[in-house]
């Protein structure tokens, strides 16, 4: 009963947010699609409605299985594959709902001067990050093709493109045993590994950190000069709350 009440309250909020988003679409037209948060909102709305549909379908499937089991007294074969599949899909959808809901918490951080630095920094360096990500992805793809074509018959982790991609990301995180590459080829192995570490790990990661650091420094300096009204409102509300708590004591 408690789960049903909580679910009804949750869907009431989803309907409310959906109405707000529809009104925003009607008012802003194409400008609405240029906002990042609209995709988060609709992602949570779509996953929530899909979860309701899957939940209802799973409920009727479980009732059917229960009726078959009750009628046969447990002597008839019951296929639980579809019910298990529905349960897995529901779990995935609920996971995405929690993900989108948690991401939405970052939106409330814009009212705090320090917590809003993350969003402001990413917005400030968005263009630079886009071009860096494009070039970085091309370089990583080139190394994936290189390692796959050179060591596909010599190293187990390079036997497929998927496993090679996984190995490349492990190398970026410096969690890879380079002895396998060296054992596969005494000449090409160390050369490819050294080239990858130099271009991807040293240069690529250094550029990424530099872009974020420069953007963070610029945003912090700008916030010192341009003190936002949202920050003043948050600090005013926080001071009022502390005063009220002090009066209660």
UniProtKB/TrEMBL annotation:
Keywords: Membrane, Transmembrane, Transmembrane helix
A GO term from the CC aspect: membrane
Membrane-related topology note: Multi-pass membrane protein
Endpoints of the signal sequence: none
Family annotation (Pfam families): PKD_channel
PANTHER family: POLYCYSTIN FAMILY MEMBER (PTHR10877), REJ DOMAIN-CONTAINING PROTEIN (PTHR10877:SF150)
Identification of the protein by name: Polycystin cation channel PKD1/PKD2 domain-containing protein
Species of the source: Adineta ricciae (Rotifer)
């Amino acid at each position: 009963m408690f789960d049903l009440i909580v679910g009804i309250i949750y869907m009431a909020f989803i309907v409310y947010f959906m109405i707000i988003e529809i009104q925003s679409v009607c008012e802003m037209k194409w400008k609405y699609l240029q906002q990042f948060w609209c995709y988060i909102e609709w992602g949570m709305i779509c996953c929530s409605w899909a979860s309701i549909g899957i939940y209802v379908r799973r409920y009727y499937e479980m009732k059917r299985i229960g009726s078959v089991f009750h009628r046969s007294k447990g002597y008839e074969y019951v296929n639980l594959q579809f019910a298990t599949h529905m349960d897995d899909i529901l779990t995935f959808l609920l996971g995405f709902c929690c993900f989108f809901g948690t991401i939405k918490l970052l939106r409330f951080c814009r009212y705090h001067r320090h917590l809003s630095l993350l969003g402001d920094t990413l917005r400030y360096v968005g263009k630079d990050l886009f071009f860096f990500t494009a070039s970085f992805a091309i370089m990583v793809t080139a190394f994936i093709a290189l390692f796959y074509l050179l060591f596909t018959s010599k190293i187990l982790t390079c036997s497929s493109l998927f496993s090679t991609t996984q190995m490349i990301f492990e190398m970026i995180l410096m969690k890879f045993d380079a002895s396998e590459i060296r054992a596969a080829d005494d000449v090409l192995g160390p050369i490819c590994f050294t080239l990858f570490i130099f271009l991807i790990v040293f240069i690529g990661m250094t550029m990424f950190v530099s872009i974020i650091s420069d953007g963070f420094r610029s945003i912090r300096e700008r916030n010192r000069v341009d003190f936002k009204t949202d920050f003043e409102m948050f600090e005013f509300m926080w001071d009022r709350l502390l005063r009220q708590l002090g009066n209660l004591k």
